[in-house]
């Protein structure tokens, strides 16, 4: 099983980063490996999403059920795809005085924590998909930080 754990401090609010992460249909705009992102079902406290990967000649899709706590976290659990195991979590932790957490205070900093563990369902599949997915998993946080700069401006 592979494990990716990243943490970064940024000058964007938890709300701003949460909004980017939960917007799966926008992923193809800034994730070059994502051919399509779609929300299959939306339920109270979460949603089910499917991502279609297309990178270096490899094409696969996977579905996750995502539990969401607005502006705080998103927890992913595998529904289907080329994995035997896929589990992940995004956490958005505000940084700064309590006053900075009010809506009128404007932008604030936050710490993003990303934790993902995964394993592929077969050795042949792992041989083909793992090099691509390893690169994706290890650059995921950086891609969202770059997207925040595009959407909200450099800070």
TrEMBL record:
Pfam family of the protein (one): Polyketide_cyc
Keyword ATP-binding appears in the UniProt entry: no
Domain Coenzyme Q-binding protein COQ10 START: 12-144
Xref: Gene3D superfamilies: 3.30.530.20
Keywords: Ubiquinone
InterPro entries linked: COQ10-like, COQ10_START, START-like_dom_sf
Highest taxon, organism lineage: Bacteria
Database matches in CDD domains: COQ10p_like (cd07813)
Family under the similarity heading: Belongs to the ribosome association toxin RatA family.
Protein name according to UniProt: Ubiquinone-binding protein
